[in-house]
Structure formats: C-alpha cells, structure tokens
C-alpha cells in the first residue's frame, strides 16, 4: 500500500538523519578544534600549562583532574553500589525496607546535578574545610576530594541499578543449586553469582566511570577551579568538563575557544568508547 | 539407628497464607526409592522442597508441621547443615557454567570452603562420576566446562555433584522431564542403582517412571497424600478411587 | 570431615550485615540533601518568588518568574523536537533488525553517554554561532538532543513488549501497516511511551551544563525564542555561586521548586508504568 511505503521511507529517512547528526556532531567538534590541533598538535595532550593570557593551552591538568576525581569517586562508590546491588538483586525477599532503598536510589538518581553542587557547596564544603583545618592542610574546602565525594554520591544509583539488573540475570536455578549443596548466601554470592556476572558488573562500573568523566555542574561548583596541575587530593583543580563550563563564554581568542572545543572533542571520544564497550558487554550477557 | 531415615509429620506448606501442601505425613525407610506422583500443581515439588528447606528460600513462603531426619527436627537445624545431608537434583540440569566438570563435582566442597588434598579430590571426583554413570564419558575432558555436555550428561553431572557430598537422602525433582527418552532411561537405571546406598525421593508426573524405579509410591492430589503404599501394590490394586482414576489416565 | 559450619555462618552473617549497612548508608546523603532543600527552600517560598522578576544584586526581594517561564519554554522546544523524532526512531528500532539497526542502537547509546556539556558545545556551534547570539531556541535544541535517546529507548522497549499477536491480528484483518501501527500498536504502548517522555522531561528539567552557552540566562522576562532565557537550574547555579545571602535564599527556593517538579514527574511516570504492567 502507498501509505505503508511512505511511512517506511519516512522512518528510514529519520534513522538516516539521526546517524548523520551523530557524524556531524563529531565532525563539527573536530572542525572547530582544528585551530587548536594545528597550533599544539599532540603537545596539547601532555601540555602542563593552560594560560589564556599568552594563548598557550595544554590539557594535562584537566585530564589529571578528571581521572583523579573519577577514579576516587569510583573507589568511594563501588562498595556502596555493590552492596545495594547484592541486597536488592539477591538477598532481599521484598518488603518495606528494600522498597524504601529502591525508591531512595531512584530519587538520588533523579536529583539534578546543579542541586548536588549547591548542596555540597553549603554542607559538604564546610565539613571538608573543618577537617582540613584540623589536619593542617590549606583549608580550601573545595577541591578534588570534595568533588569526588559528590561525584560518588551521584554515580552510586547508576552503578547499583546496572549491577542489580545484571545480578538478576543469574538464573534462579544456579542460586538454588548452590544453596541446595549447603552453601551460605555469602558463598553463593562469591562462587556462583559473581563469577557468572563478573563482566556485567565490570561494565556497570565502567558506565559509572563514564558518567563521572563527563559530569559537569556539581564538579564545577566544588572543585575550586584551578588551572594548574593538582598537587594533592585536597587541592583545587579543574576537570575537562568543568574548565569548559567555566571558560567557554569568556573565551576571547579563537585559540582559546578552539582549545576548549578540543577538550569537548576528547570528552566525546572518551565517553563514546567507554559507553560502547560497557553496552556491548551487557548486551552479550543478556543474550547468554 | 532409627527405623526411618525421614519422618514427615503433619506438614503443611504454601505461599503467603495459601497452603499448597496440606497436612502431609509420611515415613521414609532407609535406602529405598520413593516416588511422589500426581498431576501438575498438586504440591509435590513444594513438598520435597520442604525436606531440604529450599521452599523457604522463596519470598512469602510459609511452612508448619515437623520433619525428622534420623530423629532430628530439620526445622531446628541450620539449613546449611541440613542441605549437606539432603542433596537435590533439579528439573532442568544446572551445572555451574563458570566451573569445569571437575570443579562442578566438587562444587559442594568449593562452596562450603572445605579444603581437600589433590588425591582426595581426584578420588571424590572419580567415585562420584562413576556412581553417576558418567565417568567413562567425561574422564578425558574433566577440565572442560560442564555446559558443553548433552542434557542427559549434564543431569548426571548434577547427580554426581550431589553424591559427592555423601547425602543421606537425594531429592530428585522431575529429573528427566527436560531430557530425551534415551537419557531418561539412563537416569532411571542410575536411580535403581543408587538406591542401594542412598534414600531417593523422586518427584515425577510420569506414572510409568514411578512404577519402574520406585519401591514405594505416594499419590498426591490437591496438596494431600491420597495414598502411600508399596509401588507394586498401588499400581495393581489402588485403594482410593482417585488413585485409580489417575493411574488409568482419567485426569492429570 | 571437619565441621566448619560455625565460622561459615558467622562470616555469612557479618557479610550480610556489612551489605545492609552499606546499602542503607546511601539514604543518609539523600536525607541530608532533601532536608537541606526543604529546610532552606520552604522559607524562601512565597507569592513573590513565582510572580516577580529578580532584583539587582544586593537588593532584597524579587522572584524567579523569568526562570520558571524560561524553563517551560526550553522544555517545550525540547519536547517538540525530541518526541516526534524519538518515537519514529523507537519504532524503527523495534521493527528493524540487521546491521544498520545495530549501528543505530549503538549510536543512540553513544548519544546517551555524551556529556551534557559537550551537547552544549554542539548546540553552540550549530545554533548560537550561525544565529549570532544566545537564544532559547539553542538551549531547547540542546535539551532536545539530550532527551532524544530517552524517548527512543522507552519507545523501543515499550513496543518490543507488545505481543506480536496483537499486530498480527490487526494485519490479519486487512489493516495496513500504518493503520496497524497508529491505531493498534502505538495506542497499546501509549502509557509506556508517555512515561518515557515524562522521565525525559524530568531529566532535562534539571540540566544546566548545556544551557550555559546556549540559553545563557536572562534577568528579564522573555518569550522570544531567539533571545536568551533563564531557567531554574541556571538561576540555581548563578545565584548559589554569588556572594549574596538573599540570592542564596532564592536559589534554595528555586531548588525546592525544581526538586518538587522532578519528583512529581517521576511519580506520575512510574504510576503510569505500573498501570501499564497490571
């Protein structure tokens, strides 16, 4: 029928447009990064100096800032996220408290980034500052550590929900076989459940890492915005995302703007890789 | 020694207040094969899952009554201890996909954190696989994943896994319903051999299977045991009308 | 056999206790955040907050009428863009198999993973630069791109859950493919798709990063989509980073409004999913 063909053609056109949009996205970022790529080449990636006054731009401080905050956030969040995943995915038999925990993590995932930042600025930063004063560190309050804590809280629901789904993929049969052999819940978790879904949990953590890499607002508000290489875990710093948020509207020279866009390009590529790998691992598990 | 390895006294079990097994009592002698048959949904699976307390793993499960294992009340034992003495084989073969055949046989020891010497392990693996009629088929590929075996072989691997723990009782929950006729015959032959050393409680909806392998048969209907008797007697001269109807294929 | 059951059971109990403690520890920051917002936000809520425009720095009073209106405009643009395209792409993905559909699926996942700030850059390059200035339109487009994968995925997943027999029945009655899709399949999946859209709105309503250099912010009331507008998350960001107590108070008020909005959208979306299941 004529209408049918038209409809199918429209669907294909929209699908094509979407793919084109993704390609154009990468192309636009690449094109606008060219001045910066031409000016600095590979040196952009390991340049330690970011100085708009003299038009010299190197990514390293922000790359380091991004990796440290993200990894630290992962280290903090994984024990909590895995506990929630095991509790909700395996141990709990339903009831009031698991439900509360489920709603709670959903809610945590729903709170906007900017509100995390705002809250951290007024509650977390003073606490960290107090601690720093007692520990004899320069009491900025803001800095890498504070940003990592906020990031950790933000990615917990993300990692826990993926891991929970992955744990639920473990066939009920296998868990029962383990229990029927006289194993305790801990032993079944350790020797049956985790070996079965190890790759899926790794994927969940990887996706959480991707989240942390690109998270902007909350980090921007509490990381202290310093463009030099961070000297300690409590020092102010910047991440790739936060430096873009801070400087994009204030960039006056072409090279400055182009360098910021190049950072965006790297963020895009980094996240695309992390996400595609994570998704593929999980897809493979679901098929099994 | 107790006369009966297992005494079930007035057992009821169900889910969220809905009783699926009602006031069941049964005495099980040593080293015999007991078949529990009945139409699907009659509560026979739920019943044997009470014997190793797997029933309680399901959310909302409830159970009342008493089960004595060699005189001990199983509901006062920790399930972990109980399940080491009461093995279970499930409807669908479920070897652990992350372990090889060798480790699958030893899974009970591995899971329970029991360290064994290499010779001891080898001995248990060989003996259990031999007892499960599987040794000759897999002795060359002990370190391959168990999931590459055929369905019947996988089920025998699961039986070997349970036997490795030296249980007093082996529960078999429709162990052949997912298998082809040849594999089914093999398992039935295996059961008749196994009952020399271990008490077997077999759930089946296959009347012929009950007749072939068991010494005693219980007929369950709507959660109750209608009749429990010597298999030969029950199949030739059932006392209850419902048993007769079931055996002659009037329902189920 | 040596009986190690005692120690094993002890380990099991310790392990479970740790799991429970760690799990519920997560409720603490949630409680603190909600408590902070409610405590500081409620006192900032008054009629003026919703009806007045911001006052200059240092001057007391004022409201966030401009941001509320701005947020609504941005969300409206985003919805108008993402919903039709998202549903069509969702249909495409649920109906087609093969290499192109696989690639498309990966692209959708990729887009979902792209950091929001990068979407902001893209909207800046595609809209702000050619039009020569910040605008509500560019912000709405940025948010629309962010919402797109959410709509696509919820549509795809909902449609995949609809029994094939339903479609067969309609086609068997001689209905055309288009009629089957629009009269049978989509209505059957309506509530699932709608809840996806609501969750999408809840997600973009709080987005700030892509608006920094697109919608930009605007202290005045503006309804022109070619001019900059303010939004709730933007005003929270700008006011919270300012040194004025009075602005902080308004930022708390705006946070309260935003959280309530996101919460309500989530609850409605979930109720609909629930109804769809039963």
Strand order of the largest sheet of chain A: 1-2
Tell me the number of structural domains of chain C.
1
- Count of helical stretches of chain A: 11
**Assembly context of the chains:** heterotrimer
Mean pLDDT across residues of chain C: 91
How is this structure best described in words?
The complex is a heterotrimer of chains A (288), B (252) and C (278). With 288 residues, chain A is mainly alpha-helical. Chain A has a single domain (34-287), classed as MetI-like fold. Chain A is built from eleven helices and two strands. Chain A has a two-stranded antiparallel sheet with strand order 1-2. The longest helix of chain A is centred in the N-terminal third of the chain and has 39 residues, at 2-40. Chain B has 252 residues and is of the alpha/beta class. The model of chain B has no long low-confidence stretch (mean pLDDT 93). Chain C has a single domain (47-53, 63-277), classed as Orthogonal Bundle (MetI-like fold), CATH 1.10.3720.10. Chain C has twelve helices and no strands. The radius of gyration of chain C is 24 Å and the shape is globular. At the A-C interface, helix 1, helix 3, helix 4, helix 5 and helix 6 of A face helix 1, helix 2, helix 4, helix 5 and helix 6 of C.
Describe the structure concisely for a colleague.
Chain A is built from 11 helices and 2 strands. Chain A has 288 residues and is an all-alpha fold. Chain A has one domain (34-287): Orthogonal Bundle (MetI-like fold), CATH 1.10.3720.10.
Element layout with pairings:
The complex is a heterotrimer of chains A (288), B (252) and C (278).
Chain A: H1 2-40, H2 43-46, E1 50-51, E2 56-57, H3 60-91, H4 96-110, H5 113-135, H6 144-168, H7 172-180, H8 185-214, H9 217-222, H10 240-247, H11 254-287
Antiparallel strand pairs in A: 1-2
Chain B: E1 4-15, E2 18-29, E3 33-37, H1 44-51, E4 61-69, E5 72-73, H2 79-85, E6 86-89, H3 101-105, H4 107-111, H5 118-131, H6 135-138, H7 151-163, E7 169-173, H8 181-194, E8 199-204, H9 207-213, E9 216-221, E10 224-230, H10 231-236, H11 241-247
Chain C: H1 5-25, H2 27-42, H3 47-51, H4 65-95, H5 99-113, H6 116-131, H7 136-161, H8 164-172, H9 177-188, H10 190-205, H11 232-240, H12 245-277
Helix pairs in contact in C: 2-12, 4-7, 4-10, 4-11, 5-7, 6-7, 7-10, 8-9, 10-12, 11-12
């Amino acid at each position: 029928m004529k209408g049918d063909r038209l409809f199918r053609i429209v669907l294909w056109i929209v699908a094509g447009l979407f793919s084109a949009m993704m390609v154009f996205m990468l192309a636009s970022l690449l094109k606008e990064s060219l001045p910066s790529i031409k000016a600095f080449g590979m040196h952009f990636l390991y340049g330690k100096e970011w100085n708009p006054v003299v038009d010299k731009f190197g990514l390293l401080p922000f790359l380091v800032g991004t990796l440290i905050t993200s990894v630290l956030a992962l280290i903090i969040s994984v024990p909590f996220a895995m506990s929630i995943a095991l509790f909700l995915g395996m141990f709990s038999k339903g009831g009031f408290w698991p439900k509360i925990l489920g709603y709670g993590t959903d809610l945590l995932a729903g709170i906007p980034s900017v509100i995390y930042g705002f809250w951290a600025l007024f509650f977390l930063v003073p606490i960290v500052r107090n601690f720093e004063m007692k520990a004899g560190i320069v009491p900025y309050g803001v800095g890498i550590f504070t940003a990592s804590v906020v990031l950790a809280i933000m990615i917990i629901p993300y990692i826990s929900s993926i891991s929970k789904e992955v744990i639920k993929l473990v066939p009920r049969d296998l868990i029962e076989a383990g229990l029927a052999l006289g194993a305790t819940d801990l032993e079944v978790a350790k020797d049956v459940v985790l070996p079965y879904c190890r790759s899926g949990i790794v994927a969940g953590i990887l996706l959480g890492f991707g989240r942390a890499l690109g998270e902007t607002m909350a980090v921007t508000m509490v990381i202290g915005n310093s463009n030099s290489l961070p000297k300690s875990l409590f020092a102010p710093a910047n991440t790739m995302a936060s430096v873009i948020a801070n400087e994009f509207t204030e960039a006056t020279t072409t090279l400055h703007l182009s360098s910021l866009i190049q950072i965006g390009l790297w963020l895009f590529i980094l996240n695309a890789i992390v996400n595609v790998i994570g998704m593929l691992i999980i897809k493979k598990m679901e098929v099994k | 020694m107790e006369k009966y390895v297992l005494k079930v006294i007035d057992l009821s079990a169900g889910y969220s207040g809905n009783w699926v097994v009602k006031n069941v009592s049964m005495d099980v002698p040593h080293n015999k094969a007991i078949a529990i048959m009945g139409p699907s949904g009659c509560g026979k699976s739920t019943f044997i899952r009470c014997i190793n307390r797997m029933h309680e793993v399901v959310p909302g499960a409830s159970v009342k009554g008493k089960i004595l294992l060699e005189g001990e009340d199983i509901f006062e034992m920790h399930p972990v201890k109980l399940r080491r003495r009461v093995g279970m084989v499930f409807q669908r073969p479920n070897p652990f996909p992350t372990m090889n055949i060798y480790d699958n046989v030893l899974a009970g020891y591995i899971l329970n954190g029991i360290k064994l010497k290499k010779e001891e392990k080898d001995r248990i693996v060989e003996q259990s696989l031999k007892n499960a009629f599987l040794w000759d088929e897999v002795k060359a590929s002990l370190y391959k994943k168990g999931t590459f075996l055929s369905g019947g072989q996988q089920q025998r691997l699961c039986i070997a896994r349970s036997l490795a723990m030296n249980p007093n009782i082996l529960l078999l929950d429709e162990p052949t319903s997912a298998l082809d006729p040849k594999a089914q015959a093999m398992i039935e032959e295996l059961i008749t051999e196994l009952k020399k050393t271990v008490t077997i409680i077999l759930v089946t909806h296959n009347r012929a299977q009950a007749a072939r392998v068991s010494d005693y048969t219980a007929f369950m209907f709507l959660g109750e045991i209608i009749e429990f008797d010597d298999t030969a007697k029950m199949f030739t001269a059932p006392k209850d009308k419902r048993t007769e109807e079931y055996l002659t294929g009037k329902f189920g | 056999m040596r009986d190690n059951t005692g120690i094993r059971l002890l380990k099991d109990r310790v392990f479970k206790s740790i799991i429970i403690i760690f799990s519920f520890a997560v409720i603490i920051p949630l409680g603190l955040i909600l408590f902070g917002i409610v405590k500081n936000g409620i006192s900032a809520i008054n009629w003026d907050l919703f009806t007045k425009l911001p006052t200059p720095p240092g001057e007391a009073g004022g409201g966030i009428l401009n941001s509320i209106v701005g947020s609504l405009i941005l969300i409206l643009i985003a919805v108008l863009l993402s919903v039709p395209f998202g549903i069509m792409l969702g249909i495409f993905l649920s109906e087609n198999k093969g290499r192109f559909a696989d690639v498309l699926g990966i692209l959708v996942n990729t887009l979902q993973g792209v950091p929001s700030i990068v979407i902001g850059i893209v909207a800046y390059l595609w809209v702000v630069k050619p039009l020569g200035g910040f605008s509500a339109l560019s912000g709405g487009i940025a948010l629309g791109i962010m919402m797109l994968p959410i709509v696509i995925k919820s549509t795809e997943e909902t449609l995949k859950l609809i029994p094939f027999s339903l479609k067969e029945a309609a086609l068997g009655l001689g209905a055309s493919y288009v009629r089957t899709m629009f009269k049978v399949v989509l209505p059957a999946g309506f509530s699932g798709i709608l809840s996806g859209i609501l969750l999408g709105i809840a997600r973009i309503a709080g987005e700030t990063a892509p608006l920094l250099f697109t919608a930009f912010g605007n202290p005045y009331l503006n309804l022109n989509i070619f001019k900059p507008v303010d939004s709730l998350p933007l005003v929270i960001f700008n006011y919270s980073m300012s040194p004025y107590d009075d602005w902080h108070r308004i930022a708390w008020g705006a946070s309260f409004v935003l959280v309530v909005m996101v919460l309500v959208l989530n609850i409605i979306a979930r109720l609909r999913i629930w109804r769809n299941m039963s």
